[in-house]
């Protein structure tokens, strides 16, 4: 499988759009300004990250700005012995009676992608190609409206250069990503790969397609923002808590909702339950 490189045509187009947006809207705005309060703030964040990185970044939204960029399996309290490997093996054993298109038993990467998208704690961290999707995940939960949220931007190729000396997105079936996937299932017999990489993903579920999903793969519990030289590949934009409700409404007007990002009947019903209709 060939790894995905940055398409020069897409990079040039992203840079052109960023320059145009900056020319029209960027007067008086510094790249160091890091708040997203409205649609203009979303445009500023997208343009400034593209300018800073020289390419379209990946995005991640978090409800609380101080939450670390750390996968769910490393956030489990008192997990016990070989927790990650045990839950993965039990998921595989129970999946075939519940899911029609399970991966082959030896396909470690696609199993982990499937586990991630059904909520099992894994060593994968979700990212997206869309700042709108990321912003939705930063403001979706009203229970966190008393906290500032955050949207993070990541240049995955520079992360990989810093971590493993390879300035491209990594194939899930090539080293070192392959070893990291196999470690998660308990089938890798070599030395642990204590690194974090940005990896290509197979779209094993429709959610991955509609959310424009991308992933970082973690062989260590260290948060990305604590890695050496993180300023080369990482930016953070704050969503002030006071602006969350308005931004939530704006994203809904843009067509970004729970039922559009989770295309199943349960989320459709949940979104419709909130609707009110005039006579």
Describe the structure.
With about 280 residues, the protein is an alpha+beta fold. It has eleven helices and six strands. The strands form two sheets. The protein has a three-stranded antiparallel β-sheet with strand order 1-3-6. It is globular. The relative contact order is 0.17. Mean pLDDT is about 85; it is low at about 1-10 and about 30.
Query: Oligomerization state of this entry?
Result: single chain
Strand arrangement, major sheet:
1-3-6
* Main β-sheet description: 3 strands, antiparallel
Percent helix: 25-40%
How many beta-strand elements? 6
Helix count, DSSP H or I runs of 4 or more residues: 11
Look at the structure and give the mean pLDDT. Answer: 86
Look at the helices and sheets and give the structural class. alpha+beta
């Amino acid at each position: 499988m060939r790894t995905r490189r940055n398409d020069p045509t897409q990079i040039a187009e992203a840079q052109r759009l960023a320059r145009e947006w900056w020319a029209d809207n960027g007067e008086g705005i510094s790249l160091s300004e890091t708040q997203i309060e409205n649609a203009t703030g979303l445009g500023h964040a997208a343009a400034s990250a593209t300018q800073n990185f020289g390419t379209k970044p990946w995005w991640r939204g978090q409800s609380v700005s101080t939450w670390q960029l750390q996968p769910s399996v490393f956030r489990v309290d008192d997990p016990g012995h070989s927790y990650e490997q045990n839950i993965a093996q039990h998921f595989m054993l129970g999946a075939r009676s519940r899911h029609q298109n399970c991966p082959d038993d030896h396909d470690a990467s696609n199993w982990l992608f499937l586990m991630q998208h059904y909520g099992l704690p894994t060593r994968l961290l979700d990212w997206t190609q869309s700042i709108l999707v990321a912003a939705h995940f930063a403001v979706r939960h009203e229970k966190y409206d008393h906290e500032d949220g955050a949207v993070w931007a990541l240049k995955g190729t520079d992360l990989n250069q810093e971590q493993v000396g390879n300035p491209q997105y990594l194939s899930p079936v090539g080293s070192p990503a392959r070893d990291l996937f196999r470690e998660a299932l308990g089938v890798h017999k070599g030395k642990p790969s204590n690194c974090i990489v940005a990896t290509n993903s197979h779209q094993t579920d429709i959610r991955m397609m509609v959310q424009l999903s991308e992933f970082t793969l973690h062989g260590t519990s260290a948060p990305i923002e604590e890695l050496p030289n993180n300023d080369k590949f990482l930016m953070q934009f704050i969503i002030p808590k006071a602006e969350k409700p308005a931004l939530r409404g704006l994203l809904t007007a843009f067509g970004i909702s729970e039922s559009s990002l989770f295309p199943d009947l349960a989320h459709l019903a949940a979104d419709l339950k909130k609707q009110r209709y005039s006579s």
